[in-house]
Amino acid sequence: MAKALLGYVATPNVHQAREAQLRRRIAELEAEVIRLKHENDELAGSSDLGRVDLSTADLLEPAGS
């Protein structure tokens, strides 16, 4: 029984392992968001039209109005 208990204690906790995976994925996604924001800022700065601020209402409004 001692070996069984020792083996149980020595194995990594499944919840801790999953939490570590999720933390790594969150860090990857945050890095991707930052990269895309920088890319978007560069594209907005280089466009001939400049920056146009549109609201959600502007985007949902029919074209003919």
General description of the model:
The chain has 65 residues and is mostly helical. It has a domain at 9-43. It has helices at 2-10, 14-46, 56-60. The protein is elongated. The mean pLDDT is 78.
Q: What's the Cα radius of gyration?
A: 25 Å
Helix-strand sequence: HHH
Approximately how much beta-strand content do the residues carry? Answer: under 5%
Which residues sit in consecutive blocks of at least 5 with pLDDT less than 50?
none
Main beta sheet, described? none
Overall form:
elongated
Category from helices, strands and their pairing: mainly alpha
Q: How many E strands?
A: 0
Overall helicity: over 70%
Quaternary class:
single chain
Mean pLDDT: 78
Q: What gap, in angstroms, lies between the N and C termini?
A: 78 Å
Secondary structure tally, helices: 3
Topology:
Blueprint (H helix, E strand, L loop, with lengths): L1 H9 L3 H33 L9 H5 L5
Write a concise synopsis of the structure shown.
This protein has helices at 2-10, 14-46, 56-60. The chain is mainly alpha-helical.
Keywords:
single chain; 65 residues; mainly alpha
